[in-house]
Amino acid sequence: MMDAISAWDIMVSITPYLLCVIAFFILIEQITYLKKKKSSPGPAFILPFLGNVIQLMKHPARFWENEAKAAKESHFGFSTNYIIGKFTVFIQNTELSRKVFANVRPDAFHLVGHPFGKKLFGEHNLVYMSGQEHKDLRRRIAPNFSRNALSTYTSLQQNIILQHMKKWEGLSIQNGSKPIALGFLCRDMNLDTSQAVFVGPYLNGKPREEFNRDYNLVNIGMMSLPVDLSGFAFRKARLAVTRLIKTLGDCVQQSKRRIRSGQEPVCLVDFWMQELLKETQESVSDADEMPRPHPEILSKIRQEVSGIWSPESDTLITSENLRAMKYTEAVAKEILRYRNPATLVPHVAGEDFQLTESYTIPKGSIVFPSIFESSFQGFTDPECFDPDRFSEDRQEDRLFQRNFLVFGAGPHQCVGQRYAVDHLVLFIVMFTSLLDFKRCRTDGCDDISYVPTTCPKDDCMVYLSRRCTRYSHKVELRSHENVGA
């Protein structure tokens, strides 16, 4: 009894001191934040330790809208905030965003892709490389996106897209008068096409199922709090990344054996392996989302496509066909501008960096250049969905090139952007040719949701029905033969 009373007395006696220590740390945290913030727009008071992470996790789209609004109304072109012990800088102005992209180097900004990406993906990921090592790796990757490689990928993608669209039609029939959610169906289709293009015949059966499961865990982890403890989503994601690396490593070894045996490349890893082995031999001899339908736009797409390709033709869409579909490509680019898949590109300030004449970003800050905000600057009537802005007559993709940052800028600009555009054009061609569709409209259905890339808030609810008279069986066969070659 005396021991219990004594322990209680000790707790009572030290409580004021503990509260003073906590209050002191809260005060220091607040002062440090205000010192970094200076006169820039941002909250005057922050919640201790957490900052504004609750608003970010609860309503991410609204949070970033408020950041952009503060940046615009202040005319600073950026705003500041505080999230889980990290001072953040949101950049709305295009020229300031390009300044960040152009200064990715050890003594300025470090591209991280995700605020806690290094912990999730590891220190040696391509995203975090810089200097000559980064340049050499990009040079080795470039052959993966040559004209010959892109042509191979196009044939692989068509069979997978066709199979998924047939599945979507079946689901729509099963649902009767109810719409189907297209968002996650598109994600599954993109995952399948990516697997076929990147690792082709080397990922099948159980490894493929495990890959899909781990990929889903990574997506969930990226949207969760970075709590690296057993049972938490972030820990599950980090362990899933380790397993994904091992699975892909096994695919690389299979590709190496195939290319060494003299067989032709059938997927991206084969093209990379072919170039890598060639380089090795040389060194040894010398001592690697559709927005809401616009009827007139849809009509123009179908008219253009019908003059080049037909679903009933039993032929593959070639890379040359895609190049000829100028209007459809303009639609694809406008989709990417109007609804960027990734709206922000997180960087970390490796050193103090003078962003403007009056403000220096403190070392250690997380900096968010906004691709989304840049997409609505400069362009003619940017709030309007207008594919003609990318036509040969208007050429807004050249006139406002500095604002079109969908694929980034500077040393880390996306090396696979031609592949990404081709994939989207191919999807648009097949979706509009094979299926009729009608959007199920509800209040707020087009609001942006992060999962972690952007998609409509309602998961894109649509009614689908078959448009073509029949699906091409020969296209399926030829694509399959290409994969198994």
Automatic annotation (TrEMBL):
InterPro entries reported in the protein's UniProt record = Cyt_P450, Cyt_P450_CS, Cyt_P450_E_grp-IV, Cyt_P450_sf
Q: Which SUPFAM superfamilies match?
A: Cytochrome P450 (SSF48264)
Alphabetical list of Pfam families matching this protein:
p450 (PF00067)
Annotated transmembrane regions: 6-28
Give the enzyme's EC designation. Answer: 1.14.19.41
Q: Which domain of life is it from?
A: Eukaryota
Q: Which Gene3D superfamilies match?
A: Cytochrome P450
Q: Where does heme bind?
A: C414
Q: Specify whether Ubl conjugation is a keyword of the entry.
A: no
Name by which UniProt lists this protein:
sterol 22-desaturase
The taxonomic lineage of its organism, from the top, reads: Eukaryota, Viridiplantae, Streptophyta, Embryophyta, Tracheophyta
